[in-house]
Specification:
mainly beta
Length: about 130
């Protein structure tokens, strides 16, 4: 059974850092593209970052470029989102998602994902 479980969220002050983890099971990461998304109350879901199944392509939303970094550890079946210089507007529930042979287009929302985690809350506040 294919599963994704996010962790690492929490409360952090503006300017701080968090590393989100997406633990995957039931599939091999080298065959699946993974995306990170977030949704704030009253707002549409936003694609934050993605990595293609080959690992060759990685993209970021303009709002997080230069601050967030996506990575993966195939041996550990883990995908990470390192978030630095956090801002109050980064507050949201963050989700990871996976798609078989998924790509990573510049417009992250264009890549459909069949499998989703339950989300982890990130709150940036002083």
């Amino acid at each position: 059974q294919l599963q994704l479980v996010e962790s690492g969220g929490g409360l952090v002050q503006p300017g701080g850092s968090l590393r989100l983890s997406c633990a995957t099971s039931g599939f091999g990461l080298d065959s699946y593209g993974v995306g990170w998304f977030r949704q704030a109350p009253g707002k549409e879901r936003e694609g934050v970052s993605c990595i293609s199944s080959s690992g060759a392509s990685r993209n970021y939303a303009d709002s997080v470029k230069g601050r967030f970094t996506i990575s993966r550890d195939i041996a550990k079946n883990m995908v990470y989102l390192q978030m630095n210089s956090l801002r109050p507007e980064d507050t949201a529930v963050y989700y990871c998602a996976a798609e078989y042979l998924g790509g990573c287009p510049r417009s992250i929302n264009r890549q459909p994902y069949a499998y989703w985690g339950q989300g982890t809350q990130v709150t940036v506040s002083s």
